[in-house]
From TrEMBL:
Listed transmembrane segments: 116-140
Organism: Agromyces bracchium
Taxonomic path: Bacteria, Bacillati, Actinomycetota, Actinomycetes, Micrococcales
Name the UniProt record assigns to this protein: DUF3618 domain-containing protein
Keyword terms, alphabetized: Membrane, Transmembrane, Transmembrane helix
């Protein structure tokens, strides 16, 4: 009975050894498969990160270009507005000079015709200016 038992034990040992080898081979195959899948996932993630980085870089470049263009347009508009304001101010000064010259000529002409009237009007205008300045000073100093 010992030989039969030994044979069964040897058979069982062979089967266990074969099952362990099969399990180890299956585990190695699964590990290789998992490693391949991890490598594929890592490659896909790397590609996605590269594409996202490129898209972000492109968006930043476009935003910088748009900001630069807007700044250039704003600078040009400000320069144009300043130029127009300068031209308008020069025209206003010229017009005021012409008005003063015309008014001076008119006052001289009226003074030659009727000096008392011109002096009376000048005194009245002076009095009105004094009253106006006095009213402003009084309004400022009032509590």
């Amino acid at each position: 009975m010992t030989d039969a038992t030994d044979k069964k034990t040897a058979d069982l040992d062979d089967r266990v050894e074969e099952a362990v080898e099969n399990a180890m081979a299956a585990a190695d195959a699964a590990a290789d498969d998992a490693g391949d899948r991890i490598d594929d996932l890592a490659d896909a993630a790397s590609d996605a990160i590269g594409k996202a980085t490129a898209a972000a870089s492109e968006a930043a470049s476009k935003a910088t270009a748009a900001a630069s263009e807007a700044a250039s347009k704003a600078t040009a508009a400000a320069a144009d507005a300043a130029s127009q304001a300068k031209a308008l101010a020069a025209d206003a000064v010229d017009d005021a000079g012409e008005f003063i010259d015309d008014a001076s000529d008119w006052i001289q002409e009226k003074y030659r015709e009727n000096p008392a009237l011109v002096l009376g009007v000048a005194a009245a205008v002076g009095a009105v200016l004094l009253v106006g300045v006095g009213a402003i000073v009084r309004a400022i100093t009032r509590d």
